[in-house]
């Protein structure tokens, strides 16, 4: 029996095993999301009708449970559902009303941080980078096996991120211009990284640094460099990319007419050249006509 997810005036039939979030995105519905793993809560949505599996509400505050909020990224539908975006007024916990509200910092408006003070002796102590590479290889083994961090790395290989991080650390530690990737603010602009998630990442890094036998002094010098970039990453909402003075939002969907044929990123069906497709600006994924309609493929589709 196929189920129907309703979102405003759109209807989507989830495929077998597909999460509610992926079903909505497949149909080109602009639901905000970041980690797709239940950690960041960016996709938090309201279930107006239908049953919500317990797993899709794990970790949510009591006032959100009461209103039937759930996490579409952790939800495989068990009934028809009618879903709506979160209302800002619902997100404030009424129990906190008596507490003073912290002033919101607008880091999005600030420029990228300059590099920290280099520490070239550290590079020499770490065998001219050989130990740095070992630490990073060990660290990313841990990251890719970690349930909270691995979902962010779904579209990048361990080798690529290790190489990038190596040249980034080399530039930070030695001061030499050897890194050509995005600076941390832009590289992480779409990732909702809470203080707790950042701490969690730092705990994994500490394990790698200790496993590779850095001394306590070397560890604190390494950590100083990484901590310098914390304000460029920790945030509660997606930031635009910044190129010079310009801010570019890479969220949501846009449409484009294909110059060449391609395949649907959801079902693999061929999409002919000349077809106008919706694509997600950040993920770059396109949907074929059937997937974009929200309906499953039938034998004749
Ligand atoms: C919870 C914390 C963090 C998360 C979830 C995270 C996640 C990621 C992910 C998914 C990428 C790959 C982006 C891509 O190629 O599409 C990345 C790249 C990168 N990250 Fe992080 N990161 C975190 C913390 C840090 C820290 C503390 C640093 C250094 C101070 C750092 C430096 C970098 C650099 C240099 C890149 C390469 C950027 C590029 O490819 O242009 N990250 N990070």
Keywords summarizing the entry:
301 residues, alpha+beta, Ubiquitin-like (UB roll), Globin-like, Wheat Germ Agglutinin (Isolectin 2), domain 1, 3 domains, five-stranded mixed beta sheet, binds protoporphyrin IX containing FE
Helix-strand layout with pairing:
Elements: E1 5-7, E2 10-12, H1 20-26, E3 45-49, H2 62-66, E4 69-70, E5 81-85, H3 88-91, H4 120-125, H5 130-144, H6 158-174, H7 184-187, H8 195-211, H9 216-227, E6 241-243, E7 246-248, E8 253-257, E9 262-263, E10 270-271, E11 276-280, H10 289-293
Parallel strand pairs: 1-5
Antiparallel strand pairs: 1-2, 3-4, 3-5, 6-7, 8-11, 9-10
Helix pairs in contact: 5-6, 5-8
The structure holds protoporphyrin IX containing FE (HEM).
Care to describe what's here?
The structure is a single chain. With 301 residues, the chain is α+β, with helices and mostly antiparallel strands. The protein has 3 domains: 1-91, Ubiquitin-like (UB roll); 109-244, Globin-like (Orthogonal Bundle), CATH 1.10.490; 252-301, Wheat Germ Agglutinin (Isolectin 2), domain 1 (2-Layer Sandwich). The chain contains 10 helices and 11 strands. A 5-stranded mixed β-sheet has the order 2-1-5-3-4. A two-stranded antiparallel sheet has the order 6-7. Helix 5 (130-144) packs across helix 6 (158-174) and helix 5 crosses helix 8. The two termini are 19 Å apart. Protoporphyrin IX containing FE binds at residues 149, 152-153, 156, 161, 164-165, 168, 181-182, 184, 187-188, 191, 193, 197-198, 201, 226, 229, 233. Residues 149, 152-153, 156, 161, 164-165, 168, 181-182, 184, 187-188, 191, 193, 197-198, 201, 226, 229, 233 line the site of protoporphyrin IX containing FE.
